[in-house]
C-alpha cells in the first residue's frame, strides 16, 4: 500500500510539470494597474516585509505546497528547502497525510526542517484529518504554521479518492486546539464567498484562496484515470483573480494568501493590489528547479525580489500594504464577474 501511495506522489509531480503552462489562465492578465507618473519614492526605500498567518516574512511570497511522500519527492523537498534557506522565504510541504498513515514516508518531509533550520516551515494535511493528526503533522516538521487543504474536487476526480466530505468539525477543532496558526487552503479551484462565510463562523483567520489557473488537479487526476472521463471538470472553479475580487468583502475578517498560476513579479503585485497579504508559488518554482536546479531557483527568487522593489517604486508604494490603494482596471468579463458576485 505504501508503494502505491508513494508512486501517486511521484505521478503528481510528473504530471504537474507535464501540464505546466508558461501563460496560465489565472485571470490576472485581465487586471491592469494604473500608472503613477510622480511616484515620489526611491527603490531603496521600498520594504517588502509582509505577514503570513501573523508571522513576519521578509518578502510577500513563499514556496507553496507541492512535494513529499516518496524518495524522489524527498529530493525535491531537500532542494526546495535549500533554496528557501538561501533566500529567506517560507516553505510549505506537500500533504503529509501519507506520512501519518505510513511512518516510512516521514523522512521525505522532515528533510525540509533539516535544511531549513531557522526558516518558516509550513506543514500540510487534508481537512479529513482530526486534531491529533494536525498535531502530529506539526511535530513531524517542527512546523511554524499548518495548511489544511480543502480538495473535494480533486478527490472526486481521483479514482481512489474520498467520497465523504464531512470536514467542518475537524476544521473547528484544529483551529481552536492547535498550538500554531492554521491556513485553510484550496488546491486550485478557488474558495467562494459562501465558503468564507462558513470559515469565518468557525474561527478561521487565514485563507489561501488558491484559484484556478495554476497546477490543475482535475486534469492531473483525470490523466491518472483509466477512462479519462472527468475532463469536464478541467475548468471548474474560480480563477486566482476571481477569488481575490470575490473575497474583498471579507478583507477585515481574514488574512488572504493568493495562489494559482503565479508566473512573475507583476502577478505577485496584482495579487497584493487586489487584497492579498502574501502570495504562494508552487508550479513556477517546481518548473525552475527541474530545469535549472537549486542555483536557478535561487536566482529566480532573488530576481523576483528585485523586480518587486522596482514595481513597488513605480507605483509609488513603500510596502505591500500601500499597494492595496493602487487603482486598477478590470476587463469587461472580470468586471461582470465582480458585479455578479457582490454581496447584498
UniProtKB/TrEMBL annotation:
Catalytic reaction equation(s): isopentenyl diphosphate = dimethylallyl diphosphate
Residue numbers binding substrate: 8-9, 154
GO molecular function terms noted in the UniProt entry: FMN binding; isopentenyl-diphosphate delta-isomerase activity; magnesium ion binding; NADPH binding; oxidoreductase activity
Pfam family, one: FMN_dh
Location of this chain's protein in the cell: Cytoplasm
Binding of Mg(2+), residues: 155
Keywords: Cytoplasm, Flavoprotein, FMN, Isomerase, Isoprene biosynthesis, Magnesium, Metal-binding, NADP
GO biological process terms held by the UniProt record: isoprenoid biosynthetic process
InterPro entries the UniProt entry points to: Aldolase_TIM, FMN-dep_DH, IPdP_isomerase
Stretches assigned to the FMN-dependent dehydrogenase domain: 144-325
Its EC number(s): 5.3.3.2
Cofactor(s) required, per the database record: Mg(2+); FMN; NADPH
Enzyme class (EC, first level): isomerase
Main location: cytoplasm
GO cellular component terms given for this protein: cytoplasm
Residues noted as binding FMN in the record, renumbered to the chain: 95, 124, 185, 210, 215, 261-263, 282-283
Record function comment: Involved in the biosynthesis of isoprenoids. Catalyzes the 1,3-allylic rearrangement of the homoallylic substrate isopentenyl (IPP) to its allylic isomer, dimethylallyl diphosphate (DMAPP).
Family: Belongs to the IPP isomerase type 2 family.
NCBIfam families named in the record: IPP_isom_2
Subunit text: Homooctamer. Dimer of tetramers.
Protein name from the UniProt record: Isopentenyl-diphosphate delta-isomerase
Source organism of the structure: Liquorilactobacillus nagelii
Gene name, Swiss-Prot/TrEMBL: fni
